[in-house]
Here is the input.
Amino acid sequence: MKSMKNPNPNFSAKKTLSRLLKYVFRTYPIHVVIIIICIILSAIGSIAAAVFMSQFIDNVIYAGIQANGSVAGSGYEVVRPTLIKLILELGGIYIVAILASTLYQQLLCSLTQGFLHKIRTDMFSNMEKLPISYFDRNQHGDIMSTYTNDVDAIRQVVSSALPQFIQVMLTVILLFAVMLYYSIWLSLVVILAVLLIFFTTSKIGGGSAKFFIKQQKSVAKTEGFIEEMMNGQKVVKVFCHEEKSKAEFEILNEELNHNSFAANAYANMLVPIIHNIANLLYVLVAIVGVLIVINNVPNLSLRGFGNTESQALTIGIAVTFLGMARQFGNQFNQISQQLNAVVMAMAGASRIFDLMDQKTEVDDGYVTLVNCTIEEDGTIKECDKHTGHWAWKHPHKADGTITYTELKGDIRLFDVDFGYVPEKLVLHDVNIYAKPGQKIAFVGATGAGKTTITNLINRFYDIADGKIRYDGININKIKKADLRKSIGIVLQDTNLFTGTVADNIRYGKLDATMEEIEAASKIANAYDFITRLPDGFNTMLTSNGSQLSQGQRQLISIARAALADAPVMILDEATSSIDTRTELLVSRGMDSLMNGRTVFVIAHRLSTVQNSNAIMVLDHGHIIERGTHEDLIKQKGVYYQLYTGAFELE
Ligand SMILES: Nc1ncnc2c1ncn2[C@@H]1O[C@H](COP(=O)(O)OP(=O)(O)OP(=O)(O)O)[C@@H](O)[C@H]1O
Ligand SMILES: [Mg+2]
Here is the structure.
């Protein structure tokens, strides 16, 4: 099993959150500004009721009772204008608040979905640029889980926790300002409670963050395992490993269960604790308020500065304060319920950023492939149209000139050393000279390094030492996309994508016409079987073409390479799953495909490589013999033994 993707060891929830916020803001700056304005408006709406209460008690009820039976008439008539004014004001504020919150919910919805879309796009486009070695190191299900689970964790935060958090913060600040306005003594009681809440939250929140990261990792590991088991279900059944894989799954599932439990248990503790602190706050405000009113303790308030009369703490204010204290507590309760989601999202976000921060494949190549015309005297002229001739365009930085070299397909390796990991070399001192149009074959035991050589030619990996020249140009100077465009490859593992047979062949040349596709499939000898499929070229393939035979899949991938029509071809075991009779047909087709091209062919069946210009025999990363079939037979070395052995086997 491949190693797990390393989580960032320097994970910091704060840093991740601030990066996420910046990311959201950069993607949707206008949405964010409007949403914040709307949140401010609806926060004002939510504290308006509290303020209304104090005015209602003091200026309507209290004033009304006092005015009853006075000269002015009944108490109601005296206070009616004040009452109407208050109701109108409150009504106005509420209408604005309702409109604002409706608007921001709508905006939030489009922001959330758009933002997640952007994150997935960014992740995918970065992933496409990662070097092959990244996928060697990481379990594929684990990477997939980042797109599903971790992105979903963010959705919850962006769509509800974050805006709620902003709303709560604003409401708390506004409430606090109003509190200070009415009574500084009572506000001090509130400050005490807030400090207590912050202390508890940071202690418990920090503890649960650790487990949420573990939980996200466990989810990814479990998904990776399920994916592997699905891909390998035939092997599982053949070796009767159902029980064993169930047991392995149980271990992962148990671990996931444990981590999720720990994370949630921690976070769930927070809700009742904060709830009780909020209750305590309510009681304290009531007691202190009553004591101040009863004992006539001089009140201290912002509104009272320089105005001794309004210093008094009225019953209206005390009741309002109780209301505000209740609201204050509710706000913190709300945040504490979101904390799980926030911490989990930060764990997810850190994995997403981790994927985005992976170093992408560097491409310093500046030599590009261009269409050209070749004059009679051999001069090469660049051309916009497709001419069937290609040239390497080589700008020289030193003197600003540009030279053109005809694309011929001359590939040479000089003293190449390479290892997938620096400690262990897989190829040693490999020298290969493939002139345009030559067919070079690699033979050798499994694991000898045949595929590895082809991986270096198309730069899936970079060599450790030595030189590779393509038409005389150092391949490191060639833009990777152009280099790969000039090489047609049939990989050892056939890969078909979900789509029709024609789509799969078209992968080799996206703008190919149906005639070209048919011609290519004829070259690969795939035409007959394709036309016998239920829908011919329009037959849908799924799950890597599992409804086709192994050999048929290979024929399709040969057709795909034939369509690409590149001057260099790499055929890695391309005919290994094809029966001998079909192989003969394919190799005839291949011969015409190979005509005029440089071909590297790897085959275990030596009959396939006999007509090569040169055969390289590889052993543990060394080329131990080279020459034509006849030369090597005469040498009576390893090739001779392989060849005669193979014949004995057949
Ligand atoms: N992605 C990889 N990471 C690390 N080591 C690898 C990787 N791919 C191959 N190797 C190692 O490199 C060596 C050469 O592998 P290679 O695939 O080139 O063999 P091969 O000659 O093509 O074998 P086969 O005939 O079985 O296809 C092997 O020892 C293998 O273990
Ligand atoms: Mg191989």
About this structure: The first helix runs from residue 13 to 27.
